């Protein structure tokens, strides 16, 4: 059957189909040129419909009297032609209570299986839920041509199915819903290209399944990361990916809900800024109407200025940019920063207290609200649930260094921990304290950004902390220097051109509260909570040193 989009040479005298009773026409003003174009499209589509009817002629050449029950939805009906008041049911809502009821479903064709010429099974998928639909030839209901039409549909096409819900006697293995839909009408809204760049079944397979098949002498396709990311809009259709990005959404919601309930105000800071916010080389520079500018590496400077602006407690969820040179499993050039800044009364522990309560409540909420998503992720990428305690463990950097030394790791007590020693420490902490989530604080000043407050008792250390999940960093935070002279001095010592951040330094000249805060990498939280091996899995459209599209 020809697609209504394809131009069809067959002439037609057919009049446009009249609107069904009860339909409302929604008028749209168009130019004459556009009107002519639409009219040409409409004629082509009518011609295609006529061709479709011709192809729906049975073997004895009689037209199929049931032809109206199936076919491609005409072009004009895909262009907001009418508001019909029809109600579509989500696949997730198809339960046994609907037995015997007629439902209209719009979903993707996940799989089609023909059994002889008289029966076809179609598995439909929507938002991670699937249902098996059955098309059985029956007098006055379903013709053999309709079965043929169904089997002509390509996988991933979008269809409307009108059918009756039934309960099969046996368990349905290939679908999430334990009901079937007996198809009465089947119309295709949009056909997917017959060859997909990624087969969803291949993209959904776990490593364990691939290896098991290999042991049995079968080679199953493995979809590599670049292919997935090049066609991310198809890759995200897998259950695991649907799960990952719904978990990601829940992390953002939990973060926002907790902080709002603690009196924080959500803010939005500029991403085009004059000087670099974190220093170092990882800055994207560009010309802002002829002036040198940077893409913000974090909202650091402006979230602190908001504290000087009397907001008391602020947070932001937004993109941050790092011109990373290294191509690692946990660095992106653009990621989502979850940032917090707050006045403190006397000690940076007040900031760590917020981290503690925020993350324990966040993990609890993910485990409670995202069971289905976490299961879907675990089916493809098996992982153990995160082990965390009600009160988050706090160790000083010195204590951490001591643990590493005792385990035979050669470590500079005033240097930063590299990825390997962070992982090792995570393992040692887990063995000793039974938690995979902990805070390491009082870092050496030399490895922290210029705005970090040194320790009162030893300026070689600082009032700062990092937070780890499964031995990898998800958060950095600290008390900030709020005295402008000291801040300018530290900036200079760290090689920052003070002129480029003069407005930030000036903001502390007019009465500045004690304050501190922290920054969280959203993609890292999801990656490490689910023990995934690469941050690209938890970024919807990742930006890394080699990728800026799609
Ligand atoms: P930091 O630079 O440590 O601190 O960043 C905070 C958190 O952001 C995440 N992160 C990254 N995620 C993906 N790709 C990257 N390239 C990347 N770099 C960092 C990590 C990290 O813990 N202004 C401070 C925060 C503060 O003190 O408030 C800052 O940006 O999870």
UniProtKB/TrEMBL annotation:
GO terms for cellular component: aminoacyl-tRNA synthetase multienzyme complex; cytosol. Keywords: Aminoacyl-tRNA synthetase, ATP-binding, Cytoplasm, Ligase, Nucleotide-binding, Protein biosynthesis. Gene3D superfamilies: Bira Bifunctional Protein, Domain 2 (3.30.930.10), Nucleic acid-binding proteins (2.40.50.140). It catalyses: tRNA(Asp) + L-aspartate + ATP = L-aspartyl-tRNA(Asp) + AMP + diphosphate. Residues 1-45 are annotated as: Disordered. Its main location: cytoplasm. Belongs to the class-II aminoacyl-tRNA synthetase family. Type 2 subfamily. This is aspartate--tRNA ligase. It comes from Cuscuta campestris.
